[in-house]
Amino acid sequence: MGKHNSFDDFIKRNREAFDSQMPSDQLWDRIASEVNVSQSGKRQLWFNHARRYAAVALVFLSVAAGLHMVFFSSVEGEDLQASLVSKEINDVTYFYETEIERKRERVMALTAEIPAIEQEIEMDFEALDLALKELKADLNDDVANSEVLTAMIQNYRLKLQILEQILEFVEPTSTDNNTEDENDTFSL
Amino acid sequence: MMNNSAEAEDMLQEVFIEAFTRLDSFRFESTIGAWLKRITINKCINELRKRKVELDYGSINPNVMVEEEQEEDDVEVALSVDRIKHAMGLLPDGYRVVFSLYMLEGYDHEEISRILNISESTSKTQLLRGKKKIIEILKAGEIQTPGKN
């Protein structure tokens, strides 16, 4: 056994030395550029998925909100709850709509010569706006509850994500800008 | 496994691009590293097959396997990583793939049989033959280690 095992043992003992070859730096550049191209194609798919998920989520949450209203709403304390929810909704709406407006203006400024991007945003936002309108109608009908608010936040965040993904590609690469965007993304 | 640095880089490039584009399909059933390793191995094997490389996995007589194993035990040869790597480069692709998967990547014969769609006994025999061939090459001094010979 000795000699044969020593061959196996030698390889086991020196396993890491067999991985001495490293890929060239150019390889990572090629991968990065290829992945960027793939992602821009994938983004369109993501938009489609996002729209579909948003629609499904909206239907589910609208039904849930309706059921909640029918079976669990209570007259007692309704005014106080409505007041608290109303403030929360106002805060959320103000925060997200300001952010969305700010980023949308940034996108428009950077893509003024590419009207197709604005058209694409219009299309993506159309479905989301419709969903948001229905959610707000639920709120106006005093159906305000955490599920509806969560659905509204998801709706706003989808819009922000769409704008952020576009900005990722069209914004001039600067460390400050990138850092700001990353912070924006994670603070939402 | 590819036995060529440029081709290995091409494979690596394809693996990472595929991994990024298929990240959604990662189900956390294994580590990311194991997932990448599996994609890499599948890609390399597919590429070898695409090039119509004959991965010589003939049917094996178990008795022959035992004889080969016993024969391996009597080998005596000076070992170094560089010399073994060069000897691996001289192996037929079928031997080299099984040898790499078992000796370097840590797969067992059951896993190799599934990856390569061969029987476990074929995997064992390919490994033994690969080892035997490497040792023969080392003994015969048929390799040229860069910077050393």
Question: Could you give the order of the helices and strands of chain B?
Answer: HHHHHHH
In angstroms, what separates the terminal alpha carbons of chain A?
A: 64 Å
The helix tally of chain A amounts to 6
Q: Please give the largest β-sheet of chain B.
A: none
CATH architecture assignment of the largest domain in chain B: Orthogonal Bundle
Helix content of chain A: over 70%
Q: Please tell me the total number of domains of chain B.
A: 2
State the largest interface. Answer: A-B, 25 and 24 residues
> What structural category arises from helix and sheet content of chain B?
mainly alpha
Question: Could you tell me the mean pLDDT of chain A?
Answer: 69
GO biological process, one term (chain B): DNA-templated transcription initiation
Keywords (chain B): DNA-binding, Sigma factor, Transcription, Transcription regulation
InterPro entries (chain B): RNA_pol_sigma-70-like, RNA_pol_sigma-70_dom, RNA_pol_sigma70_r2, RNA_pol_sigma70_r4_t2, RNA_pol_sigma_r2, RNA_pol_sigma_r3/r4-like, WH-like_DNA-bd_sf
Domain RNA polymerase sigma-70 region (chain B): 1-52
Considering the chains and any ligands shown, give keywords for the structure:
heterodimer, A: 188 residues, mainly alpha, 6 helices, 84% helix, 0% strand, disordered C terminus, B: 149 residues, Arc Repressor Mutant, subunit A, 2 domains
Describe the 3D structure.
The complex is a heterodimer of chains A (188) and B (149). Chain A has 188 residues and is an all-alpha fold. Chain A has helices at 2-13, 25-72, 78-110, 115-140, 146-170, 175-187. Chain A has one domain (38-171). In chain A, helix 2 (25-72) runs parallel beside helix 4 and helix 3 runs parallel beside helix 5 (146-170). By secondary structure, chain B is mostly helical. Chain B folds into 2 domains: 5-50; 62-140, Orthogonal Bundle (Arc Repressor Mutant, subunit A). Chain B contains 7 helices and no strands. In chain B, helix 4 (81-89) packs across helix 7 (120-140) and helix 5 (93-104) crosses helix 7 (120-140). The A-B interface holds A 1-4, 6-8, 10-11, 14-15, 17-18, 20-21, 23-24, 27, 30-31, 34-35, 38-39, 42 and B 5, 8-9, 12-13, 16-17, 20-21, 69, 72-77, 79, 81, 84-85, 103-104, 131, 135.
